[in-house]
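(Deposited chain)
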Amino acid sequence: MSGDKVNIHAKSWYRLNGVTSGSPVSPLADLVAALAGGVAQSAAGKYTAGELVSGGALSPGMTDMLNARSDSSSKPKAYVNWVLFDEQFKYVAGGSGFDQVGSDQELKQHILSNLPVTKNGYLYIYS
């Protein structure tokens, strides 16, 4: 709910194992398709997933968030992400963000406290 605060506590660890990271793949299309499918089902047949994706309602802000990441070349392109959508499933930049995982063989604790929920809606947290 608008005005609430959210705390995220997660851990990440990886081992490079002598391999260099490849080019990152954007999860945007998969995320938008998954969200659109869920919205279409909850909208009781008012919209199809295809209509939501082709209409661009979900993707412009997500593209901005993904493009805003500054990757460290010594770390994988992996993140703990949180994305806030308002009640119409429009991306809310002020309530969304990401935190990159640690370096090779580093156990990183992601402790994100008092993140603001700036609008009523839905908060998705994923890695």
Summary: The first strand starts at residue 5 and ends at 12. The chain is about 25% helix and 30% strand. Residues 28-42 form the longest helix (15 residues). Helices lie at 28-42, 49-55, 59-67.
